[in-house]
């Protein structure tokens, strides 16, 4: 940035100044690279580098048991590659309900993944044969490839933000509901402006900022943002969960085991759980199981429009479908379960 309405663009012929009425910052984020790991060794990779690899490893150690780490562990185990995952927190997917974490952990273990939680990598040694990682108060783990998935860092450096007066707080550029920074006509979207690094959230923010920058002011409520985890089983969540539901909230679940489509497809591992307020308004949903990342959209739409749980229950859902589980959970919340016991 060369001010609120100007950019300096470096080219082979030198710097070129570009004037603009509005500027949108969409520089994204990059994988964190902890200094403990010798990054000069190509067998030690970030999650982005791992997805671009041209060959499969004989074995893999994944450092980080968040969303990306668990998804990668799922992929490698499905490919038949011996996989180990290490997480410093007491459980995988620590940002989700404990029951969700347990379901994914059990599934990974059934697929042969070695899971270490409450552990950190203390030492790393590289040899021609393998990479050896010593865990604190734990064993020595050897693997042909190590993938580090311990978070992402917003790209706020070298943008001229300070000179332009754009504020940076806690590593991100804070924005309002219209994606505007503290500097007029300078917008920021996506990972550089949000601690929640989701492509769908970044896309929505980009639309809002583009509308505003082109003279069509728009705002958005970013409190309703669905989360999807592409593991086996899939995990999805939006809004309030059971663990952070306030006083007076009521919770109901419907198991995939009682789903006609779930039984027909042999996909009975999972559930739909709804959280509703004392006045009947839907507050949140968590889904574990087949197509969870698709089904969560119904909950997101209901939350966006502040619908009642009864509105979901009164909506006819096709049969047989996985989406019936959402309807059944709503009926259970009302105390009128159709295909599950109270």
Arrangement of strands in the largest sheet: 5-12-6-7-8
CATH architecture of the largest domain: 3-Layer(bba) Sandwich
- The CATH C-level name of the largest domain is Alpha Beta
Q: What is the overall number of helices?
A: 9
Largest beta-sheet characterization: 5 strands, parallel
CATH superfamily of the largest domain: FAD/NAD(P)-binding domain
Element-by-element helix/strand order: EEEEEHEHEHEEEEEEHEHEEEHEEHHH
CATH topology of the largest domain: FAD/NAD(P)-binding domain
Q: Kindly state the mean pLDDT as a whole number? A: 95
Task: Pick out the low-confidence regions.
Answer: none
**Topology, number of strands:** 19
Characterize the structure shown.
This protein is an alpha/beta fold. The chain folds into three domains: 31-152, 3-Layer(bba) Sandwich (FAD/NAD(P)-binding domain); 156-213, no CATH class; 227-333, FAD/NAD-linked reductase, C-terminal dimerisation domain (Enolase-like, domain 1). 24% of the residues lie in helices and 25% in strands. The protein is built from nine helices and 19 strands. It has helices at residues 47-51, 67-78, 98-110, 161-164, 199-213, 260-265, 292-304, 309-313, 324-333, and strands at residues 6-11, 14-19, 23-25, 29-31, 44-46, 60-63, 83-87, 114-117, 121-126, 131-135, 140-143, 145-148, 152-154, 186-188, 227-229, 235-239, 250-255, 271-276, 282-288. A five-stranded parallel β-sheet has the order 5-12-6-7-8. Strands 15-16-19-18-17 form a five-stranded antiparallel β-sheet, sandwiched between helices. A hairpin with a 2-residue loop joins strand 1 and strand 2. It starts with 5 loop residues before the first strand and ends in a 9-residue tail after the last helix. 39% of the residues are buried.
């Amino acid at each position: 940035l060369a001010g609120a309405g100007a950019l300096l663009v470096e080219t082979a012929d030198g710097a070129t100044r570009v004037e603009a009425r509005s500027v949108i910052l969409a520089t994204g984020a990059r994988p964190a690279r902890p200094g403990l790991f010798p990054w000069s060794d190509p067998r030690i990779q970030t999650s982005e580098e791992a997805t671009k690899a041209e060959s499969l490893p004989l074995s893999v150690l994944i450092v980080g048991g968040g969303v990306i780490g668990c998804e990668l562990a799922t992929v490698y185990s499905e490919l038949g590659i011996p996989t180990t995952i290490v997480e410093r927190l007491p459980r995988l997917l620590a940002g989700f309900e404990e029951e969700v974490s347990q379901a994914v952990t059990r599934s990974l273990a059934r697929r042969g993944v070695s899971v270490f939680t409450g552990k950190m990598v203390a030492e790393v040694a590289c040899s021609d044969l393998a990479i050896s990682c010593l865990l604190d108060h734990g064993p020595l783990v050897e693997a042909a490839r190590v993938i580090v998935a311990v978070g992402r860092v917003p790209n706020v450096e070298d943008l001229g933000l300070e000179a332009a007066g754009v504020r940076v707080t806690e590593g991100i550029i804070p924005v309002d509901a219209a994606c505007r920074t503290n500097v007029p006509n300078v917008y920021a979207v996506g990972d550089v402006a949000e601690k929640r690094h989701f492509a769908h959230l970044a896309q929505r923010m980009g639309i809002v900022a583009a509308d505003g920058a082109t003279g069509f002011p728009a705002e958005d409520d970013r409190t309703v943002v669905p989360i999807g985890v592409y593991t086996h089983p899939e995990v999805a969540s939006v809004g309030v969960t059971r663990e952070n539901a306030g006083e007076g909230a009521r919770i109901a679940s419907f198991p995939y085991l009682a789903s006609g489509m779930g039984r027909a497809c042999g996909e009975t591992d999972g559930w739909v759980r709804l959280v509703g307020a004392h006045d009947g308004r839907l507050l949140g949903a968590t889904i574990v199981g087949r197509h969870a990342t698709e089904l969560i959209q119904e909950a997101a739409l209901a939350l966006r429009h502040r619908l009642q749980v009864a509105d979901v229950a009164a909506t006819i859902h096709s049969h047989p479908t996985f989406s019936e589980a959402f309807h059944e959970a709503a009926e259970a919340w009302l105390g009128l379960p159709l295909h599950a016991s109270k």
